[in-house]
Amino acid sequence: MKYRNFTKDNLSVSQLGFGCMRFPTLDDKETINKEESTKMLDYAIDNGVNYIDTAFPYHNEQSELFVGEYFQKNGRRKDIYLATKCPVWKAEKEGDFYNLLKLQLERLQVEYVDFYLLHALDRQRWDKITSLNVFQDMKRAKEEGLIRYLGFSFHDEYPLFEEICDAYDWDFTQIQLNYMDIGHQAGLQGLDYAHNKGFSVVIMEPIKGGKLAYPPQDIQDLFKEASNDFSPSGHALAYLFNREEVSVVLSGMSSMAQVEDNVNVASIVEANSLDEKDQDIYIEAKMIFDKRTQVGCTSCDYCMPCPQEVEIPKIFKQYNNLHVYGEESNKDLYEKLQEENHDASHCVECGSCESQCPQHLNIIEDLKSAHDNLTEV
Ligand SMILES: NC(=O)c1ccc[n+]([C@@H]2O[C@H](COP(=O)([O-])OP(=O)(O)OC[C@H]3O[C@@H](n4cnc5c(N)ncnc54)[C@H](OP(=O)(O)O)[C@@H]3O)[C@@H](O)[C@H]2O)c1
What we know:
eight-stranded parallel β-barrel
């Protein structure tokens, strides 16, 4: 494992962090498969991962509880840096942020968290939390030793990113970045901006929520020309490990094979280690993908549950796969959703999904196009 400096205190953090949003689940697809997830966390920590990132809402609010149980059982809390995020949308009045943190510490069964983030900030949330004096609560939490470092994760347009960076002397920030999303949200511009301000930067969705794991054949052929023989996911991680401005790359791994694969890449690629030819390969891969992708959904599931039970991320996955991979079988999958009454025709345009979407997708319109394409004979 390669390590990077983190925060102005130069903590030594593993460049690969374990994102606790995509643990394997049992047959019901909801309950965390604790046995397998425990093995995966064990393997990651045994192989040098020391940054664990969870949040209140992950896995239907079960992720923090599981992470808490995990560390309670094995006493490994001291070996790692623990990050969780404040569900800012739950705060209604001054003082709520402090109370939410206390609740999260109980759920995690810990005295403190190393890294605390104000979760998924966008314009609406930022205006709300500043009006509720969030920094007063965070100051108190730091003074009482409940959190060591404060950051925020971001999902909105670039200008707001600068505004938030400039508003407070943050310790770190968490942004979405991968070789496809360089101009999206904070993007590469945000990475530079935060880095130049002296904030450490944590990356989320490095494999675009899994979308870069199984690219079409022409991209796979392109990767064969790279100097490292990595999986496509490995290449997505390598692109980020190569950047010196990045401190930690979080991946939400859902199987042991993925943990092994990602740990391997994190033990090989260092900052500034890829040559120009390798870097050009990622630019070309992006161009090939860009031409085919219809909707930039990352399957983060923030839009779910839909009140009409429309399976939004599944539908967009089928729509994109149809175009990116030319897989006609996605039409069969969509037909199954129609039989189960979970297809896009049940959308009543209430918009509750759009207000939750961190990618700010036009879900209502995109669902209509997806429906037309997936039902075309
Ligand atoms: N603060 C925020 O607003 C926010 C938002 C999103 C994420 N996050 C955090 O950031 C973390 C990382 O984001 P993410 O989970 O979207 O990361 P990601 O690494 O882009 O996506 C994870 C998915 O990629 C696939 N994958 C990972 N490694 C693979 C490998 N070696 N081979 C094949 N497929 C692989 C898996 O997909 P399959 O399961 O389909 O196989 C996995 O579920 C999250 O877990 C969470 O902790 C934070």
